[in-house]
Amino acid sequence: MNDQDHPRFVLDPELPAGDRELLEGRPPEGLVAACLPPPSPPALGAAALAGRLVWVPTFAFFYGVLPGGWIRVFFAASLDEEDLMGGVLRWGRLPVLTMMLTPAVQIALLLLGQVEAAALLAAAGFTGWGIGALRHMGEPAPARAAREHHGRYLLPGDFDRPATRLLVRAQRAVESVLGSEAQAAGLLDGVNNTVVLPREEWAIARALAEHTRLRRERRAQQPERLTPAVRALLRPQDRALETSVRSVTRRIEALEAYAQRAREADDAFHESLVLQRLPEQNARYRELLAGTAGDDLAGAEIQGLADDARRAETALRDRVAGAVRAGHDLELAAD
User: Fold this and answer.
1) Are residues 315 and 274 in the same domain?
2) How large is the angle between the packed helices 278-290 and 295-334, nearest 10 degrees?
3) Structural domain includes residue 148
4) Which residues pair with 317 in a beta bridge?
């Protein structure tokens, strides 16, 4: 297989948007195939635990109670740091604003004799920055998403060769529709392709992954070592698998038919763009023909151009209508 024959990994479209972004931005080698055991939560050793017991309170006290934000700004400025504010704002605007204002508010409260309020503010700052430090030191968000949603994404390793071939066909059809000029121009708006097609791709991928698991289990059973009687008992399972493969193949063929309709609509759309220039071109050709062959011939040629334009516009409407109908059929099948 070449690189074009390798499927891209597939995500469950029902995943939360934030976790989808985390998983889409994570390289496939950082994910774990659904056919493998799920990744374990990161273990925390004794040394790491002791380090956190010291570092987290110190960090929270420095930024949540003391004027740590101001100290850092002055220190960074003394080093002539070029991107000073970019470095300061790496935690986000709200935490930076909090650590800059908390010392001033504390001093104001102390000057007003509001010792309890100042102490309460210091406790709140210490707690908030302590929680933030623990979250920062915990499991990275992409790794957490990969662990929590294991099984809701499928990798190339989840598919054997027959399943891979079918999945690649489905993904090419989906990409063809979503990347078509007709889709970008809104000509296929009658079908919510951005919703239906990912859902259809996920359903096909799940079925193909299950086919792969069943075929791998069958190979592990070593049928050549079984007696004819036992092999006969397994034949209904084989027929069920073959029926499911045929059903998924038909779904992929429907996707490919829709992609072909979208390509035809692309061709007609291209023709329509060419026809948009016909009025200006007609005038130029009219002048050309009038100067060489007379007005009667010019009128006949221009009429021919106009007839061609009408035929092309009719073809565009027919092709787009056919693509939309195919998309509606696909949407109904997915539902």
Assistant:
1) yes
2) 160
3) no
4) none
Euclidean distance between CA atoms 289 and 115, whole angstroms: 96
Say how far apart CA 240 and CA 106 lie, in whole Å: 73
Residue with tokens 């100042």: 118
Q: In the structure, what pLDDT confidence band is assigned to residue 274 with cuts at 50, 70 and 90?
A: confident
Q: What is the pLDDT of residues 185-229, one digit of tens each?
A: 887 765 678 888 999 999 999 999 999 999 999 999 998 888 999
What's the token pair of residue 65?
């109670």
Q: Quick one: pLDDT band at residue 84, thresholds 50, 70, 90?
A: very low
Reported as half-sphere exposure (CB side, CA atoms, 13 A), residue 252 has a value of: 21
Q: How far apart are alpha carbons 267 and 76 in whole angstroms?
A: 59
Q: Are residues 188 and 288 in the same domain?
A: yes
Domain that holds residue 329: 159-334
Q: Are 285 and 202 in contact (CB under 8 A)?
A: no
Euclidean distance between CA atoms 277 and 300, whole angstroms: 19
> Residue 86's CB: how many other CB atoms inside 10 A?
9
Tell me, yes or no, whether 37 lies in a domain.
no
Convert the pLDDT of each residue in 25-40 to its tens digit.
Answer: 877 777 889 999 888 8
Residue 47 CB neighbour total at 10 angstroms: 8
Alpha helices (H) in the chain, listed in sequence order: 17-24, 46-64, 68-78, 84-88, 93-111, 115-137, 141-148, 161-178, 181-184, 193-220, 228-275, 278-290, 295-334
* CB-count burial class (<10 Å; 0-12, 13-18, 19+) for 137: middle
Q: Are strands 10-11 and 153-154 parallel, antiparallel or unpaired?
A: antiparallel
Residues comprising the chain, all counted: 335
Calculate the average pLDDT of the chain: 77
State whether residue 16 is helix, strand or coil.
coil
248 in a domain, yes or no? yes
Q: Whole-angstrom Cα distance, residue 121 to residue 161?
A: 62
Say if residue 76 is in the same domain as residue 164. no
Say yes or no: 202 and 133 in one domain.
no
Q: Residue with structure tokens 């005038």?
A: 283
- Alpha carbon distance 61, 227 (integer Å): 73
